[in-house]
Amino acid sequence: MKNIIFIAPPAAGKGTQSKLISSEYNIPHISTGDLLRDEVASGSTMGQFLKKEMDSGRLISDDTMVNLLRTRISQVDCKNGYILDGYPRNVEQAKIYDNLMQELGKDVGIVIFMDIDRKIALKRTMSRIVCSACGASYNKEVLELTPKIDGFCDKCGHTLEVRSDDSMETFVNRFDTYLIQTKPLIEYYRKRGILIELQIKENDSAKDVFEKIKSIIG
User: Which one-letter DSSP state was computed for residue 80?
Assistant: First the structure.
């Protein structure tokens, strides 16, 4: 099984697909956001430092991020492949990651670019709802992600609400930042011949996209 890097704009569904692939092929889903949160929760010296940086709004340095990745990727469950979600975000980070792979004697693998139209992404973003208690996420525009009972969490039964950061302004900022930072990264991997482009259509269900990705992996 090859390592997989996901690149996608907001609301394309890479988090959902990462979890489905992880379950199907029994390989870990490594989210850089989760790595940071887990380190903070551990209470370690590094975790305390990261908490201060994150609370202040400062970006985590590439050196710190690559050290966290090195530790995680070196664990035994990554031996047969893993899914990397949230890194690299730009060409400079991609080159740092290339060096890390060379250091660890691993192959970069394949890069799956989940492309989605801005209008579809906006519609999905404005339809997201989360549980006020356990944090479970749902989407009224994606069949597999709708709650069984409208307005209530499937897992704990608490009420669902719109995410506080899912506003039009926030979406525009995120999408524009993605376009600026990620377009050169896509071209970087395209030139290396390891980029696979997957167009997400408005009527595509999570299952539809998953089947396409399985055919790519296969």
Answer: T
Q: Which two tokens stand for residue 116?
A: 């989605």
C-alpha dihedral sign at 162, 168, 169, 171? positive
pLDDT exceeds cutoff 80 at 209: yes
| Cβ-proximal residues to 193 (8 Å cutoff; 6+ apart), any chain | none
Q: Biggest alpha carbon distance in the chain? A: 50
Count of other CB atoms within 10 angstroms of residue 181: 15
Task: Please answer whether residues 116 and 9 qualify as being in contact, where contact means their C-beta atoms are separated by less than 8 angstroms.
Answer: yes
Using 50, 70 and 90 to split pLDDT, how confident is the model at 139? confident
Is 124 assigned a catalytic role?
A: no
Residue 58 annotated in active site: no
Catalytic site includes residue 72:
no
Question: Phi and psi of 135, rounded to 5°?
Answer: 85, 5
Can you read off the two tokens belonging to residue 40? Answer: 């903070």
